[in-house]
Write a structure and sequence with these properties.
By secondary structure, the protein is of the alpha+beta class. It has one domain: Trna Endonuclease, Chain: A, domain 1. The protein has helices at 2-21, 70-86; strands at residues 25-33, 36-44, 47-56, 93-103, 110-119. The protein has a five-stranded mixed beta sheet with strand order 1-2-3-4-5. The longest helix has 20 residues, at 2-21. The radius of gyration is 14 Å and the shape is globular.
């Protein structure tokens, strides 16, 4: 379990660095509300982007982004709409992205993939 927590923290740091490099302006990190949590909230042009970070250290278990189930998507969506309402961001488009991070335990090579529009407000 400890390794999983370390990988999660490292993955969030890598995701933040990656997103900044690709022009995202970070608005919030680990946003929590009564409806759930969003790992990263960022702005890209006229869009507020709600980003889930997923990581794995072995690819034979599937890719990290594949681990986001419908229930998790619903929590992210509800949290995003709560954030949008609380911060009065109705004039902005919203989008749901996923940063998928795969770390090879043997070589320590890290692959980062950004999946824009990974799902919509209905969870699809």
């Amino acid at each position: 379990m400890y390794y999983k927590q370390q990988l999660g923290k490292l993955s969030e740091k890598l995701a933040l660095k990656f997103l900044k490099k690709h022009g995202y302006k970070i608005l919030d990190i680990n946003y929590r509300c009564p409806l759930g949590e969003v790992d990263i909230i960022a702005a890209e042009k006229d869009t507020v982007v709600f980003i889930e970070v997923r990581s794995r250290s072995k690819s034979h278990c599937g890719f990290p982004f594949e681990s986001i189930n419908f229930t998790k998507k619903k929590h992210i969506i509800r949290s995003a709409l709560f954030y949008q309402k609380r911060h009065k961001l109705y004039q902005y488009n919203i989008r749901f992205d996923v940063v998928s991070i795969l770390k090879d335990e043997n070589t320590q090579k890290v692959d980062i993939e950004l999946i824009k529009d990974a799902f919509d407000e209905k969870g699809y």
